[in-house]
Design goal:
With about 210 residues, this protein is α/β, with parallel strands linked by helices. The protein is about 35% helix and about 20% strand. It has a seven-stranded mixed β-sheet with strand order 3-2-1-4-5-7-6, with helices on both faces. Helix 3 crosses helix 4. It starts with a helix and ends in a 7-residue tail after the last strand.
Amino acid sequence: KMDDDDDDIPQLSSHALAALQEFYLEQQQREGMKTSQGFNQYSIGSIEEDWQLSQFWYSDDTASCLANEAVVAAGKGGRIACISAPSVYQKLKEQDGKDFSVCILEYDRRFSVYGEEFIFYDYNHPLNLPENLLPHSFDIVIADPPYLSEECLQKTAETIKYLTKGKILLCTGAIMEEQAAKHLGVKICKFIPKHSRNLANEFRCYVNYASGLD
């Protein structure tokens, strides 16, 4: 009988069903925001986090604070590089018209929507960079290595040191303090970065210059 076949269909629990419905509703709302006139392709969340790529976006306040710090540190006409820190890049682009330039180095090719400012970047090949990215050509480099491992930090550090004229702003776990000092000569700041979703690991900012983050 047909009825017997119904018993074999896996049923979602009411809790899982409610969670799924909530997820789809949120997705519809986000899509609705994107199609409305006010949608800004540079707003945080316009490209959603991919946890499989260890992506966690900063809160709006944190991204703004780091972007403003970068603009001041870079100076008039300055060049800013964001390595694996797309939410800071997006905040910088919201300040369109300010006297600085910025590019984003990122493994996730979804960010190629940002055109020529997007540079594909794989930390496993730290110096595999386009020829037009000249050594020591950025006034400040902001980096947020995707993984809390010394190997990831060490390889990202190679890229940072290649690109920066001197100033470094690093965001990573508090547990990486010793390795950050060892590979980049940076010190921990008082400012505590926050993410749009709470992370289990305590996050901190590190710099090698007199910053406004203390």
